[in-house]
Amino acid sequence: MISFIIYDKNGESRELYSKVVKKFFYTSIDRYKIYEYDRINQETLNEIEHIEGVRIYILNLDTPGYDASKFARKIRSDGDLISPIILLTKRDKSEVVEELNNVLYLDLLQIDERLIFTLAGALRDAYDIVSRYSVYSFSIFDEIYRLPYNDIYMIKKNFKDDSVTIYTKDDTYTDYITIRGIESELASDLRFLKIHRSVIINLYKVIGYDKKSNTLSFCNGMTTNMISRHGKSILTTRLKNFGRSDYIKSKVDSE
């Protein structure tokens, strides 16, 4: 799924941006969702943190209150270096360049009579970026979902049919593919490890492994003990060698 995050105080402006997005995706089967914000505070930042899927930001730099350039800078400093950021302003572009130091943005657009056309062009560029990004794409009822690899925590085979459940931070998705099929698609990315004939995990999301109870813990509080004897050996080795954190190493080495 592609998530659009719009930040502008003016409701009519947000409606215009949303219309451009909807028109752009009118003939597409990509699954998308639009989130609109007229203010940014700790509550909305927490909400935005839990938005899943590939993100595209549309931010008005002239919005009073929380500085949009500060918001864009926070997006990057929090580790998101991929999501396209489209910035808008009524001011002359030369007046805002200095406040955009250290902000990696896709485009800076002038809010004028040509905005519909320039925003549509920026959306085309943004879509090209997110469709090339490392994502797992699948379709449900003729709608395409795109899950960034970083959003995937665990994948489990469903026992009643040839399908899998994909677990993310706050949600689950069903894809009608075999566990071997999705393992093959993810094989080139070293963060994914099959620890059981029915389970694949994202090592980046692991915060601990208790060998005595054979329980693996993820950073969102989720756990699993579906770890085979062979998977247990590989998992222990990978966690020791992965170098993600001293916490994981100490948990494994202490056993």
Quick overview:
This protein is an alpha/beta fold and 255 residues long.
Describe the fold and architecture.
- By secondary structure, the chain is of the alpha/beta class.
- Helix content is 33%, strand content 29%.
- The protein contains eight helices and 15 strands.
- It has helices at residues 11-24, 42-49, 68-77, 93-96, 115-132, 179-186, 229-242, 246-253; strands spanning 2-7, 32-37, 54-60, 85-89, 107-110, 135-140, 143-148, 154-158, 163-167, 172-175, 192-196, 199-202, 206-210, 215-218, 223-224.
- The strands form four sheets. A five-stranded parallel β-sheet has the order 2-1-3-4-5, with helices on both faces. It has a five-stranded antiparallel β-sheet with strand order 10-9-8-12-11.
- A hairpin with a 4-residue loop joins strand 8 (154-158) and strand 9.
- Helix 1 (11-24) crosses helix 5 (115-132) and helix 7 crosses helix 8.
- The chain is elongated.
- Gap between N and C termini, in Å? 41 Å
Instruction: Tell how many strands the DSSP assignment holds.
Output: 15
What is the subunit arrangement here?
single chain
How are the strands of the largest sheet arranged?
Answer: 2-1-3-4-5
Helix content: 25-40%
The residue ranges in which pLDDT falls below 50 over 5 or more consecutive positions are: 243-255
Reading the helices and strands in chain order gives: EHEHEHEHEHEEEEEHEEEEEHH
Determine the mean pLDDT. 87
Helix vs. strand class: alpha/beta
> Overall 3D geometry?
elongated
Radius of gyration: 21 Å
